[in-house]
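Late entry, evening session. Most of the bench is empty. Finally got around to the prediction I had been postponing all week. Sequence below, unchanged from the version circulated by S.P.
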Amino acid sequence: QVQFVESGGGLVQPGGSLRLSCAASGFTFRARVMSWYRQAPGKEREVVAVISSAGSSTNYADSVKGRFTISRDNAKNTVYLQMNSLRPEDTAVYYCNAGYPDWGQGTQVIVSS
């Protein structure tokens, strides 16, 4: 079955950095567009970054553009999200997905001093 296992979250001060990882299984990873999403308390889940199947094309939400970088390793079935210059408004649970209805447990990111 399709599975996503996110990791790398934590508590970080404003201006700090984190690198999230998502290990995927149960489908042909290299053939799928991958996305990172986040859901803040009391808000709907939103997409923050998208990467093409080969990794040659990326797109970002305006709120993270210039601060976050999505990448992937098709040999490891893993997608990454490098997050720099973190802000308190980046606090959320972060998820990855490839367009499936199944979701992982997410990884919590808290940006606070």
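Two things to note before I forget:
The first strand starts at residue 3 and ends at 7.
Residues 15 and 31 are 35 Å apart (CA to CA).
Will write this up properly tomorrow.
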